[in-house]
Write a structure and sequence with these properties.
The protein has two domains: about 15-45, no CATH class; about 45-430, Up-down Bundle (Amino acid/polyamine transporter I). The termini are far apart. The chain has about 450 residues and is mainly alpha-helical. It is globular. The chain has 21 helices and no strands.
Length: about 450
């Protein structure tokens, strides 16, 4: 006769990995657990959001930036990453303090015409996100197995849907899967830094020396902003934190916000270093003799004779990990945006299909993959001000955030970041319509 577990064990022992994670976090907040290992229960939301900053759109824009302008646009990567840190921290805080995600807050506090407009634009941004990310995975599979791009899209879609199936077991399994893929991408670019002959002095100089050489550099700068500060990531982060760790009082919320800010800084610092590594690798490999390299496929094939098969293989592995993980995160964000804005329950397969389908249509129509990647990043940059402004409006209001409302300094820096993004977008629109931009050669 088998022994049954004591009833107290069945009550006290959480059934799932997600429940055990939440319980461990609650124990730390209550002072019953301490040490670095205990803080691992809080790690997850910023790691998942950080994949948006290492997606295939970054590969496309960073390869072009490094190949054509060398290290000249590294400062844009740093600036975009700092802006991203601030707004991801604000998004996480909104979810922790209010228990609502950004899309839900917009639905609750804005008029219906504004809500519907924001929803449409946000859906377009989510579709552009998935276009870039599914293309990245498809390009990687196409290069690895010599299969048509559309078949690579299908395989990527199957893998993404399989990963999303783990959501039924709670938040933790997907966090761990995405976290491991992030680690693969970071490790790949650490290896690239040892393979590529980097001019570290020049790289350091251009990281802190702002310059825009011409109109094409401006387009790439806006693309880098679009590929780094992502609308769907701003929406998603608030949803990842809104009900993850239950808090009993204000002091516990303050502790969770503080830990979340630390996670954001670390996760996005790693993402920023990966972005910089992409530009530096492209600069060292292509700028001197192959400045016309603009496509991911060309970069892969050119790396082999320049830096060896190892560099090309590591590049391909990082692209595959990026495509799969960012496609998963992009689809998660798309379904969260739709559910949050419309306010009524939509079958999850419909939410995923709406986000994923346009990417398959674009590839099915035979669009150039890398051009589609870059254009998608510009679309994201144009859509970005809406969630940025909404997030800033909510997090500065004491009637919503209480004592967690932004300080004057935080508001000032956040407004400055939003102005930078808006200014770059305005310059891009002027350039697109053929308006001469003073100081930019060839802007006509």
């Amino acid at each position: 006769m088998s022994k049954r577990a004591p009833m107290t064990d069945l009550i006290d022992r959480p059934a799932s990995l997600s429940a055990r994670t939440a319980a461990a976090a609650s124990e730390l907040l209550a002072g019953r657990r301490a040490g670095l290992r205990a803080y691992l229960a809080f790690v997850g939301p910023a790691v998942v959001a950080s994949i948006a900053y290492m997606d295939p759109g970054n590969f496309a824009t960073n390869i072009q930036a490094g190949a054509k302008y060398g290290y000249g646009l590294l400062w844009v990567v740093l600036l975009a990453n700092l802006i991203a840190m601030l707004f991801q921290a604000l998004s996480a805080k909104l979810g922790i303090v209010t228990g609502r995600n950004l899309a839900e807050m917009c639905r609750d506090h804005f008029s219906q015409p504004v809500v519907w407009t924001m929803w449409v634009i946000s859906e377009v941004a989510a579709m552009a996100t998935d276009l870039a990310e599914f293309l990245g995975g498809a390009i990687g599979l196409s290069l690895l197995f010599s299969i048509p791009l559309f078949y690579g899209m299908i395989v990527t879609g199957v893998i993404v849907y399989a990963i999303l199936m783990f959501e039924r077991f709670g938040f933790r399994p997907v966090e761990l899967i995405i976290g491991n893929l992030v680690a693969i991408i970071a490790f790949c670019y650490l290896i690239e830094m040892f393979i590529a002959p980097i001019d570290w002095r020049s790289a350091a100089l251009h990281t802190v020396l702002p310059q825009i050489a011409d109109a094409q550099a401006l387009l790439l700068a806006v693309g880098i902003i679009g590929a780094t500060v992502m609308p769907h990531a701003v929406y998603l982060h608030s949803g990842l934190t809104q009900a993850r760790i239950p808090t009993r009082d204000e002091s516990e919320k303050r502790a969770v916000v503080r830990i979340s800010n630390t996670e954001v800084i670390i996760a996005l610092a790693i993402a920023g270093m990966v972005n910089m590594a992409m530009v530096m690798m492209a600069s060292s490999a292509f700028h001197a003799g192959h400045s016309d390299v603009a496509e991911i496929e060309t970069a892969y094939h050119t790396l082999t004779p320049l830096l060896g098969i190892a560099a090309a293989g590591v590049f391909l592995l990082s692209l595959l990990a990026s495509g799969v993980s960012s496609s998963t995160v992009g689809t998660m964000a798309g379904q969260m945006i739709m559910q949050g804005f419309v306010g009524f329950r939509i079958p999850i397969w419909v939410r995923r299909l709406v986000t994923m389908l346009p990417a398959f249509v674009v590839v099915g129509l035979g669009a150039n993959a890398t051009n589609a990647l870059v254009i998608s990043q510009v679309v994201l940059s144009i859509a970005l001000p809406l969630p940025m402004i909404a997030l800033l409006m909510f997090t500065r209001r004491r009637d919503i955030m209480g004592r967690f409302a932004n300080s004057r300094l935080t508001n000032f820096v956040a407004i400055a970041g939003a102005v930078v993004v808006l200014s770059l977008n305005i310059l891009l629109i002027l350039q697109t319509f053929g308006v001469t931009i003073p100081g930019l050669a060839g802007s006509n």
